[in-house]
Structures are given as C-alpha cells and as structure tokens.
C-alpha cells in the first residue's frame, strides 16, 4: 500500500511522505493517533520523486498557517474498517454465487447491517467513494458503492432507519440479476450488439425474479431492484414507466448507480473524472428525481479537505473547506502564493475551476 497523500500533523509537519510503502508499525502508529483511513496509490501512476525520494509540493510556513487557520473539516464521512471490508466482500461473493440459498436474504441483511453500523458509528452524512473500496471485482465494488451512497442519500432524503437499511439491501442486490447473464455478454470488452444489449437489459427483471419468494425481502426492496434503470420521463427500462410509478428506492439507487458507473473504469470505457460525472448527472434533470439528485449533491465529497488539487490557472492548491451546495467548487489555498480561492462565492474566481 503506497501512500497517495502525505500524512501531515496539525503543525504542518510531514509524518509520512507521499509515495511511501506503508509497513505494519506505521499502520499501527496511525491507528493509535486516530487516523482511520488513508489514500492509497492505485493504477500505473508512479509516485513523484526528486533525487530518489518521494516529493510532496512544499508548503511555505506562512501558507501552512493560513491553511490551518481557515480549514473546516469535512462533514462526518462513512468509513469502512478493513475487517468490515473483508466481511462485505466475502458476503457479496456469497450472494452472487448462491442466489438459490435459503440463507440468501440473511446474508444480504447482514451486509446491510455492517454498512448501517459504519454510517451510524460517526453519524455519517457524507461519502467519499475513494474510501469505500472493498474488492477489485467490479460487480462487488460497484454494488457496495451504490448501496452505501444510496443509504447516505436516503438519510439526507429524510428516510427512517428501516428504510435506510432496506435501501442498502436493494442497492447491494440491484445488479444481482447479472449473475444470470451469460459471461460472454456480461464480460464482453467491446461494444454490445443490439441482441446482446437486449439480453443485458433484462438483468433488473432477472434480479426481481431471484428475490421473489425469499423471506425477509420486502416489496420495496424488490421494486428498487426492478426499477433502478427506469427514468422519470418514461425512457428507462425494463418497464418504461414514468415518475409517479417509480418507487422511492429506485429513484435514489438510480442516481447512485449512474454516478458510480461513470467514475469507474471498465474494459470498454475510461473512467470519467468526478467533476465530469457530476456535470453529466446535472444534465439529466429530466430523467432523474430532482430530490434524490439534490440529496446526492449535498452528500458526496469530491475533494476532501486536505487533498491537493490543480487549478485551471496552473496553481496547485490545498482544499480547506467544502460547500454542500457547490461540491465542484470548494474553498482552496494556493500552495505557492497563499491566495485564498473561494471558488463558490468569490466573483473573481468565477473563471477558475479544478482540473
């Protein structure tokens, strides 16, 4: 596990530099300090180096003081411990491999319990999907992402604990019908033919049939699975129904599903940036439930406080405060100049974006 973001204490001192491969004693030390999650380098990117050593952008002491003075910590985010991630990953593998099991519903309920507890432990009202990864397998990762995001949206939406728990189950199982899709269609790297696409579009119905007759699976959970690809303007599938007939669970899951699919790399497509994915969602107001979208926008954190971003004016900056109403435009401090960029409210920053 190679750090993708340096661990810096409140005095601005770098405790562990970006690019360091974490060892067990360092992990234990971080945990003892109350650090419950770190950003890990993934993919083919190489850590930035200078003279053979990992290099973080140097922050002048005066700038660091400014950052510490005005920094506002993010809202409480969902955090999954390593033990929870392991249980959830094993549980998802069981669900998709044992759809006929008499213990199927209990297994789904147990996973949703783990996610619910992780949300309740720190009264989480926000989610940073970079912290959720439970598996390298797309289907399992995607299902857990969708479930967790949907639960946080449901909380913001005003749903009660039972509904939040149920929408977690529905999110976990929203793609379970894909377990019945032939592998040559499901895992095809290239573009699907019209016939293959029609087969793929049957997965909500197949998932609904899997859940029918299982104990402790409510009608609302099943409708969330069946309708998660429906659109409020009636252009979705498999039923082509419009807003008034789509279940509340499906409206929420649809937003989480589209967002996570857009930001995830697949063999047949590149991942979108989080900014581009949000802008795509914002352009779908005629297709997605507006209340669910607003709840999503105020719940997802794209640029966690403390992370480094690149501005369109060429300056690197540290994020010091997020704005729930403008998740693409946080307040940042230029690392080189110390300039405060209030991207959401300062008219002088109107032409500056995070790249």
Describe what this molecule looks like in 3D:
The chain has 355 residues and is of the alpha+beta class. The protein folds into three domains: 7-56, no CATH class; 58-73 and 305-355, no CATH class; 82-297, Hypothetical protein af1432 (Orthogonal Bundle). Helices cover 41% and strands 7% of the residues. The chain has 13 helices and eight strands. The strands form three sheets. The protein has a four-stranded antiparallel β-sheet with strand order 5-6-7-8, covered by helices on one side. It has a two-stranded antiparallel ribbon with strand order 1-2. Strands 3-4 form a two-stranded antiparallel sheet. α4 crosses α6 (161-172) and α11 runs antiparallel to α12 (274-282). It is globular and about 65 Å long. Residues 44-54 have low confidence and may be disordered.
């Amino acid at each position: 596990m190679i750090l993708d973001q340096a661990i810096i204490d409140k005095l601005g001192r770098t405790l562990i530099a970006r690019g360091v491969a974490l060892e067990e004693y360092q992990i234990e030390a971080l945990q003892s300090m109350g650090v419950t999650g770190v950003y890990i380098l993934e993919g083919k990117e190489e850590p930035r180096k200078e003279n053979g050593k990992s290099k973080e952008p140097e922050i002048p002491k005066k700038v660091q003081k400014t950052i510490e003075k005005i920094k506002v910590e993010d809202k409480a985010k969902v955090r999954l411990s390593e033990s929870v991630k392991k249980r959830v990953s094993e549980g998802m593998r069981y669900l998709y491999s044992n759809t006929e099991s008499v213990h199927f519903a209990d297994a789904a309920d147990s996973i949703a319990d783990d996610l619910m507890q992780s949300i309740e432990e720190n009264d989480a009202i926000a989610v940073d999907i970079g912290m959720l990864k439970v598996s390298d397998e797309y289907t399992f990762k995607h299902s857990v992402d969708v479930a967790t995001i949907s639960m946080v949206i449901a909380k913001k939406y005003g749903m009660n604990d039972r509904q939040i728990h149920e929408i977690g189950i529905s999110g976990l199982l929203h793609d379970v019908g894909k377990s019945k899709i032939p592998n040559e269609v499901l895992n095809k790297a290239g573009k699907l033919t019209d016939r293959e696409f029609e087969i793929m579009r049957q997965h909500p119905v197949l998932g609904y049939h899997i859940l029918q007759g299982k104990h402790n699976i409510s009608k609302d959970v099943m409708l969330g699975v069946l309708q998660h690809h429906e659109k409020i303007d009636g252009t979705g599938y498999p039923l082509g129904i419009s807003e008034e007939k789509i279940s509340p669970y499906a409206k929420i899951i649809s937003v989480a599903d589209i967002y996570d699919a857009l930001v995830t790399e697949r063999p047949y497509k590149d991942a979108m940036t989080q900014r581009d994915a949000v802008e795509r969602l914002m352009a779908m107001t005629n297709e997605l439930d507006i209340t669910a979208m607003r709840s999503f926008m105020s719940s997802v954190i794209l640029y966690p406080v403390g992370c480094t971003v690149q501005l369109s004016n060429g300056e690197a900056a540290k994020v010091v405060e997020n704005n729930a109403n403008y998740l693409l435009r946080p307040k940042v401090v230029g690392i080189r100049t110390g300039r405060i960029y209030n991207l959401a409210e300062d008219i002088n920053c109107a032409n500056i974006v995070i790249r």
